[in-house]
Amino acid sequence: MTPLRYVTGFILALLCHVGVPAHAHKASDSYLSLKTAERTVTGQWDIALRDLEFAVGIDRDGDGALTWDEIRSRHRDIDAYALSRLALSAGGRACPATVTEHLIDNHSDGAYAVLRFRAECENSIDTLAVHYNLLFDLDRQHKGLLRIERDGQVETAIFSPEHAKQQFTSSRAGNVRQFIDYLKHGVWHIWIGFDHILFLLSLLLPAVLVLHDRQWYASASFKTSAIDVLKIVTAFTISHSITLTIAALGIVQLPSRWVETAIAASVIVAALNNLFPFFQGQRWVVAFAFGLVHGFGFATVLAELGLPQSALVIALIGFNVGVELGQLAIVLAFLPVAYLLRQTWLYRRLLLNAGSTVIIAIASVWLVERAFEVSLVPA
Predict the structure, then answer these.
(1) DSSP state letters, 305-338
(2) Do 226 and 363 sit in the same domain of this protein?
(3) Could you report the per-residue pLDDT of 239-268, keeping only the tens digit for each?
(4) DSSP 123
(5) Which of 3, 64, 155, 297 is most open to solvent, judged by the fewest CB atoms within 10 Å of its CB?
(6) Which residues pair with 259 in a beta bridge?
(7) What mean pLDDT is predicted for residues 150-155?
(8) How far apart, in whole angstroms, are the C-alpha atoms of residue 367 and residue 302?
(9) pTM
């Protein structure tokens, strides 16, 4: 595959993919919390209503709106579907689970059904084996985010089709394990955070070009382009690290709706600057200013994962490092190929101009949806 086809295909596939989710902040996730005590497991499982609608069908009248009566009428089906895709065992013996309560809760990307359950084990729970298989047959991108509490210690894990079975011992999770777990969370979040990716991509697209008489021309030096990228990435990293930290520690917290709306606006501004340059060579300032907002968005996800108080700093650092590694991987994949293509007409017209226009259109839909809490694109 030629460099042109590689980068064009990468960007167009990304743009097409991010246009699908209505909320567009993250892909399909569920949140599973477990707490063990001798031979008993108590749990809470938050599953997106949109996923349950897709899997078992809840909207009986087909009007696109889910009511509590519709959800309640499907409780048995929801229970059967969910519990058939979660298996707990201790000492090689199954721990049958029973749903004890149904609730509804809101996450940053919409409404979730909350299943509270209890599982009884025949053996003491020295090692708990968890087999998670929710939605994997329908959505290979789905992830299960686990938070497990044992003896006052909190550990996290991510279930995917490749890691559907995992075991957790009763020994205290070490600091290295906590760091690695949250690092993985950070990498995964930046890779599925399509609004974060489009914001970064909008700032990177002109990095291999120079502006002269309000026209973009190919940069004559890779070093110059790399320095420009370094300024942008460094500014974004510093700013979102600041707000991620203060929000995660509870010093300052903002409503999720405000944050998500501002993130959508940041994508529009960054992409609009590619068509009508009004920041000139100051894109790093834009990266820093809006990076403060993106940090609050990262903090929302981190809060939903559950920060272990016994290793708060380690988990926070691990998540932030993971975000940076995920971001660095995107930059390293994009910059060299973009530099090779910078002199082509297709790069300036198709990827920069047309690509930025598509990004503005997508982010505008996000902005309206998040600001007015409406759905313009079917989930």
Answers:
(1) H---GGGHHHHHHHHHHHHHHHHHHHHHHHHHHH
(2) yes
(3) 999 999 999 888 998 988 899 999 999 999
(4) S
(5) 64
(6) none
(7) 78
(8) 22
(9) 0.75
